[in-house]
Amino acid sequence: MKTVQEVLKSLDEKDIINTYLYRYSASSIEDFPEEKPIDEAKTIARETITEFIHELKEITPKFPENKNYGIFYSYWVLHNGLKEPNFELTFLNEIYQKDNPQNYGYELTNRDEIMGYLVSDDGLTQYYLEDLIVDILYNASFWGYDNETFKKEQERIFQELKESEDEDLGKSMTLEEFEKEMGIASHPPKLTKTEKELEDKASRANYQFSEYSKRLYVSKFLDKHPKNNPNLFA
Q1: Which of 40, 79, 116, 152 has its C-alpha lying 20 to 30 A from 211's C-alpha?
Q2: Whole-angstrom Cα distance, residue 208 to residue 202?
Q3: pTM confidence score
């Protein structure tokens, strides 16, 4: 398997940038002052993501001392009735210990760690490499493109999480109390009994499909990289 950084370096940079801006141009442009003309904002957005990619290519990847490598992989999910790849991050120990590994967010993970994560060598993930890298770039830049801004946001959020540990966050409330607190006053007409049954059936089918696809990935991974001889970097 290759690292995220190795995959990033192997792909066409212009294609990555174009795909990124096509998908996330709105959020990218919003990062810049409103007084900027739209064309200028687009230019700045392109320059910013280009600089961000160059920074990631040059950074020294950080690998886990305990060999518990982070691994990006994909499996199928249903969206609006159509299958599409779902990109997730898990860790080697999760795969070897469970048939349904936990997925993890990485928006607040240091960039050098992300660049040291591995990209699964299964067929589905390899087919959608460009889409995966674009997804990683988006999540890695969620709290800022430049490392200084990212570090400030990371520190702020971690401090808020630490402070919240002393607060009473476990207080339960009814749905009605929650809606009242959030100011939710109106609701669409309720589903008929048949509509609700069909909705539940569709929801279960979606869940079963994605869970089966995820477990299938794990099974194939274990066949190719058994625990006693993972051979991850072959």
Answers
A1: 116
A2: 10
A3: 0.84
